[in-house]
From TrEMBL:
Residues 38-115, 126-221 form the Ig-like domain. Residues 1-24 form the signal peptide. InterPro entries: CD300_family_receptors, Ig-like_dom, Ig-like_dom_sf, Ig-like_fold, Ig_sub, Ig_V-set. One of its GO terms (cellular component) is plasma membrane. It is found in: Membrane. It comes from Culter alburnus (Topmouth culter). One of its GO terms (molecular function) is transmembrane signaling receptor activity. PANTHER family: CMRF35-LIKE MOLECULE 8, POLYMERIC-IMMUNOGLOBULIN RECEPTOR. SMART domains: IG (SM00409). This is Ig-like domain-containing protein. Residues 239-259 are annotated as: Disordered. Keywords: Membrane, Signal, Transmembrane.
Length: 259
């Protein structure tokens, strides 16, 4: 039975590579994402900002379907975000029969390239999980993310990585390539906590927590400090008014940049 399943999987893989004539991206890595039965997940698929592809799709090896941007269905959405040079794939109501490999694929001049490969496992308990897949912090402030892992992962390498360039921060490592603005502490039992301090606007984007091959994505939004100041000042000056005074905004931006 297992041999048959393996042979079948191999056959499907070969057909897939033949049909697409796929070229692999250098940043391709093998990630395992475990999601609870009935759960949802959003996965980012980055593409080259200087040379945006003509076609972008999510490929399932389970039913060999290609879901192009922009598709919105009850249980699956594939949405392009050209401003961020990525498309996101949201899978909802996940069921056990959806286990298997999935790919982010981009096509330029008819040439498909797999930019990301993911192995999805729908289980009663996830291997790596986060309380919320979306966190936010203010420019200059801090944000912390707690990443939970199951007992089998206690001795695996724990990391916090940025999708875009696949740069990672590792628990217990102090190599010089790491920014001191990210600190990771592992309780050694079932979670590790990532603290990002002195947030910059450029820190906004997709990250993932990982333990060994198991991972889970998190979206970080860094809110501009200027916007907060402007909002508070306008509210103070004109209580009850909803309109934005653009001259006040300009003056504030000016005074902020002077500091
Ligand atoms: C979405 O998933 C649920 C749960 O598996 C299923 O009952 C429903 O039919 C799905 N919807 C579509 C449009 O496939
Ligand atoms: C951010 O974290 C640093 C380091 O732990 C701490 O010194 C600082 O007070 C924190 N800032 C805020 C706004 O919480
Ligand atoms: C590390 O910090 C420097 C500036 O302090 C910044 O330019 C760089 O993008 C940071 N690297 C990462 C991976 O965040």
């Amino acid at each position: 039975m297992a041999a048959y399943a393996n042979a079948k999987l191999f056959y499907i893989s070969v057909v897939f590579w033949l049909i697409l004539g796929v070229e692999c991206y250098s940043g391709l890595s093998n990630h395992v994402l475990t999601i609870m039965t009935g759960g949802s997940v959003t996965i980012p698929c980055h593409y080259d900002e200087k040379n945006p592809p003509q076609k972008k799709y999510w490929f399932s090896e389970i039913d060999t379907s290609k879901i192009y941007t922009d598709t919105i269905e009850e249980n699956l959405s594939v949405i392009d975000h050209p401003d961020q040079s990525l498309f996101t794939v949201t899978m909802r109501n996940l069921q056990n029969n959806q286990n298997g490999p999935y790919y982010c694929v981009v096509e330029t001049e008819g040439q498909p390239t797999v930019t990301y490969e993911l192995h999805l496992k729908v289980r009663s308990a996830p291997d790596v999980s986060v309380v919320s897949s979306s966190v936010s912090g203010h420019e200059g402030g801090n944000v912390s993310v707690q990443c939970f892992y199951s007992s089998g992962y206690q001795n695996e390498l724990k990391q916090w990585c940025r999708y875009k360039d696949q740069s990672c921060y590792t628990v217990g490592r102090t190599d010089t390539s790491q920014n001191s603005s990210v600190q990771i502490s592992d309780d050694g039992r079932n979670s590790f906590t990532v603290l990002m301090t002195g947030l910059r606007l450029s820190d906004s984007g997709w990250f993932f927590c990982s333990a060994g091959e198991a991972m889970n994505p998190v979206y970080l939004t860094v809110i501009e400090a200027e916007q907060v100041t402007v909002h508070l000042t306008v509210t103070e000056a004109e209580p009850g008014s909803v309109t934005t005074d653009t001259s006040t905004e300009k003056e504030l931006r000016f005074s902020l940049s002077q500091n």
